[in-house]
Amino acid sequence: MTSHDVVHRIRKWSGEKRVGHGGTLDPLATGVLPVALGYGTRLLEYVSGRKVYRAEIEFGKATNTYDAEGVTVAEGDVSGLSESQVRRELAVFQGEIEQQPPLFSAIKQQGKPLYEYARRGLEVAVAPRKVRIFQSTLLSWHSPVALVEVACGRGTYIRSLAHDIGQMVGCGAYLKALVRTQDGPFTLDASTELEQLQVSLQGPAPSAGILPMEYVISSWPWAVLDAMQEARVLQGLPVPAVEVALQHDGEASTSLEGAQPSQALFCRAMAANGQMRAVLRFASAVSIWEPVKVFPPRGS
Predict the structure, then answer these.
(1) Which is it for strands 35-37 and 51-59: parallel, antiparallel or unpaired?
(2) Is pLDDT above 80 for 262?
């Protein structure tokens, strides 16, 4: 099942036309796939770029897709490969690194995904990409398979990581299995099985597995708008910063001092009834909060 298949099913079950996902999972992979419905699709861009994967990497073989679905293109001797060597090589691939995307991927080149060229046997020059790997941890080693946990940023290919490590140790490697255990604030433990979600969405009052859309940005500061401010924001008009009581960690203030740099430029604008009305961006030059995304009252 592809990520697109998941979106198609949820669109069908929910009757909602606007459905999107927060990051493609390869068909081989399982795990967390954030899916947004309705206005929630407009907040997907704010999902944190941090992702965590649990990967099985098998050494001694390389494939053309860098994973178990591909054709074997090389084999090597793993008899001399040790746990300590695997651990050392994992440490090399941390921080900001340049990574060569796999040719069998959805990255577009001249308007076509790379896998279309690869399936036709065409070689396409693809520039390496800078990605960030926060941490790579060897969880277990049962030669020739390593179980690895990888925390990384957006755009990282775990398939490429497996392939590159295999090249470094000299015997080749490929991604045997992959589970995404976290994507931004969404974790595997708190996720809902697709079958359960179907029952919920097709029931009289969908609830299981469905979170309010502001959950994506729940770590941001927020402000409760009065009726006049709400009316202005819904018309796309800014609100003077001095009129906005910004709240964060339970404290209210019109000042942005103490806010985290990643949070200082944005806040959630909430109506008195608790519904989110907008994403506001702080324009420091003119000291105003300007709406960048507006969410009219439901049913309006």
Answers:
(1) unpaired
(2) no
